[in-house]
Amino acid sequence: MESKFTYLDKLNNLVAKDIMDIQMLIINKNTNLSDAVFLMLKNDVQDAIVANDNQIFGLITIHDIAKIFNMAEREKLLQKKVSCFMQKDVVTVQSTTKAIDAKNIMKARKIGRLPVLEDDNLIGIIRIKDIINKLYDVISAMNDNFVNILNSIHEAICIVDKDSNVVMWDQQAEKLYGIKSADIINQSLKDFFPTALIHQVMKKREPIENVCHSPKEGTYAIISAMPLFIDDEFVGAVSTDRNITEITNLTSELEETKDKLHYLEQEVKKISDANYSFNKILGNSNIMKEKIARAQKVAVTNVNILITGQSGTGKELFARAIHQASKREGPLVAVNCSAIPENLFESEMFGYVSGAFTGASKKGKAGYFELANHGTLFLDEIGDMPMFMQSKLLRVLQENKIKRVGAEKDIEVDVRIISATNRALETMIENEKFREDLFYRINVIKIELPGLRERKEDIPILVRHFIHQFCQQNQLKIPKLEPEVLTLLMGYKWKGNIRELQNTVENLVVFSQEGEIRADSLPQKIIENQLNDKIMELEFLKDRKSINYQDELDLDLNEIISEIEIKTIKKALAITKGNKKQAARLLKIPRSTLYYKIKYYDLTELM
């Protein structure tokens, strides 16, 4: 193995001719700047020598031209001669000049290129990169690992000595970080990049590979760095930086829309012609047919709609069916106004920009209005919207523009509003809890959905639908439904409407016995509710002073009461399968009274 002195001798004996690049572009000083740019791009070079018959007049680089492109009158400037923009004070060296002397000249003059002459003829050009490349050729024989790194260099290159002074800064580094080599060569890298990863390599003398880092604000790179050793002596470090600023910015933009994409993904799964259409709204009652027909008529328009009705009457189902029939291009975005904290309302509805408030995501966030652009925004429980937000919503409905929290510019939106509430907004207006002007904006068309007690004839079809749906979802065999159960379900008042009915049906399926849904599987509240109704009917009959029956045979009040008592006792005993204690509790009478009435009415067969 050659000693380090042999290698140093090789370096010291190199002359300009050994390291120069003979591939150079020579252009006439009368050439237009636009033509010079074309020739540089065509020949894939970063610089050109301006010369005629070996007489050098100047030198021009891509960086010189880049300054012109930032000028307002660049089109006129491009038509001027290249001599107007070239660097005129060009330093040259002879072909026999020592390479180390050439390097020192470039350092002293803070220049990146030296034309090489031989017998007054231009034969090549030396660039800093040429010196470093030759240095690589010499050093690579000493360290195979270093050779591998050199072979992987495709981007910005920085080499520092053991004191962290920059000895090499290539054109890609200039482009990536916006710092000229002349301004950083021989300067401490820490003065420019105090957090650069190469400092860690210098300190620990261990390599790092493919680390994403941002040495300068707004600039991102994948960085690999390695310490340099010559015969086990630490001499510095080299780093290669691959520019990923564009990719990082694009990733940031993609991340910004992550919520929207996720939301749309969920909506695509939920919304389909098979699941949300007017054909899937169950009900054959006249009142439901009238509501569906009204909704279908307004669906094809863009007017705002207010859907009212008790909780569980299907307001969101109607909203989705209206949106489905509207054929609007965007999605339906459903928002529960009662579930949003007041201090987050504006940012949730309109979104926010990076740094808008403490805790805000660095990438910002799109609000519900942006998510629903060209589609429908369903504002459920709009009566719970804070007053301050009502005024902001009114402005959006008037101007079709929103502004993200912390932003300066408005964003135009095309959103149809469908609102829903189970509250009396007119009363809230009187109590100054809801804006009257907003009410008229959202209430262009009103659809009032009936409670289940107003459409009891729809209960059978709803019950069978929920049984099939639940069994299909849980891979269960569909049980047989006893007619008495359906009768009891139709007699219940259903304060929770369809939602309560669905929960009850699922409960019945789970607790069905031997493949049948029986009356004794019904929730206690449904049985007690109807027994209470019967008892109230008895009390009512007892207190009546006159009955306007047409048939005089029906005027025997005692007979009527006896018949109702017998039927009610039999029903309670049937439900409890003959358990007198449970039957007495359902009837809300003492057990002794039940025994007395059984004996009195000669119902001993039920004993």
TrEMBL record:
Residues 142-193 form the PAS domain. The keyword ATP-binding applies. CDD domains: AAA (cd00009), CBS_pair_SF (cd02205), PAS (cd00130). InterPro entries: AAA+_ATPase, AAA_lid_NorR, CBS_dom, CBS_dom_sf, Homeodomain-like_sf, HTH_Fis, P-loop_NTPase, PAS. Residues 247-274 form a coiled coil. Keywords: ATP-binding, CBS domain, Coiled coil, Nucleotide-binding, Transcription, Transcription regulation. Residues 20-77, 86-142 form the CBS domain. GO terms for biological process: regulation of DNA-templated transcription. GO terms for molecular function: ATP binding; sequence-specific DNA binding. Residues 281-510 form the Sigma-54 factor interaction domain. PANTHER family: C4-DICARBOXYLATE TRANSPORT TRANSCRIPTIONAL REGULATORY PROTEIN DCTD (PTHR32071:SF57), TRANSCRIPTIONAL REGULATORY PROTEIN (PTHR32071). This is PAS domain S-box-containing protein.
